[in-house]
């Protein structure tokens, strides 16, 4: 994240120029992207700058702008006087997220968009220091501050040295100073495109959070049914704990922004009824792409509230090359590209019974609305350009979406799944992947099934049936979002405060 003192106009490495009426802008859902995980903020007074930085981080975490301050319904802001964070602000500075912002954040995690947030950094920019919670050079362990150690790990670690016979002090794979046995689950899968992580038996840390390589088939409805079961009610708290994120002087922060330093709130809300109605009814098979299960139905439901249109709609409109049906803009920016017949399902997104206004983004141009008669029935063909603040147009079929048998979309083209290198893991040759005893991950490494090991999962090495970890600190990665919401959302505000006068960026 870059901080500048004048009107925002940043040219990114990808050639896009940011122009924003606000004092900050960022990519939507870009927190874990190597190319879209940043933003730009105008530096000014600490208070307003902290809020705009918080808003930019919120966009990176999947939160959309609240276009209007609702007076009723699920999106009602809990603070009608100060307003909510993902809104345009005035003289008074907001302190809370609306219910819709929190639900968008939860959905973002449940869809796998925040997978990198669960990978603990291995190296800090600050000099090594005993008590910072990171095992660094010259240390055997580090359970954190005295308060942290009293909660967990203190019996195994004294002054960053392991106690007698202790193997570890902290970590999802450390239990009573000993490594958990191989095969114990330390992080559950968040959706059908994710893979559960298991303890290795020789480390206290849960392996990095990875997901399936692009191209795997998936159940588009599975994650949402799990979401409804686990999150029928969520309580969250934003509690700003300075030492949980960065070691700076508390007096500096409290002096600069006293009304936010000790700020916290809690809020409970009812089941995600709209999430259930949007997604749980759709169990069409999709394809994994970037850790998410992609289908046209899911896209239409999320953006417009209804299912995807019939293929005939795509063949009729997307081959015309107009604003109402195309495969993207002409390189000159003056017209539209006609879809080849084999690519029609990768162009303009066409749905049925669309609402006039998209649920995300701003409608640009008119809504496409056409009814055609085909095989003794009428077909609704509807679409629209829903443009986000970062310039992304949600009105197109997403990359990775199935477009035919063993075919997926990429850059508005329908390509064979083999193009995505699904068979590049060790021990893989069609139709077997990882010797047929594992899953190929996005790191192009085999994640072996229970009882198998080796780089290609070809070695049979039986282990006891894995069991779930117990204990309050053993939350299962993204499926423990009810625990993480407070810490990460609190970290958003805290980062905005402590980084008020500094630069910040994502790799």
UniProtKB/TrEMBL annotation:
Q: Which InterPro entries match?
A: ADAM_Cys-rich, Disintegrin_CS, Disintegrin_dom, Disintegrin_dom_sf, EGF, MetalloPept_cat_dom_sf, Peptidase_M12B
* Residues passing through the membrane, by range: 483-506
Question: What residue stretches are annotated with the EGF-like domain?
Answer: 421-458
Q: According to Swiss-Prot or TrEMBL, what is its membrane topology?
A: Single-pass membrane protein
Pfam families for the chain: ADAM_CR, Disintegrin, EGF_Teneurin, Reprolysin
The SS bond pairs are: 186-206, 448-457
What biological process terms from GO does the record include?
proteolysis
Q: Where is the Disintegrin domain?
A: 127-214
Return the protein name.
ADAM metallopeptidase domain 11
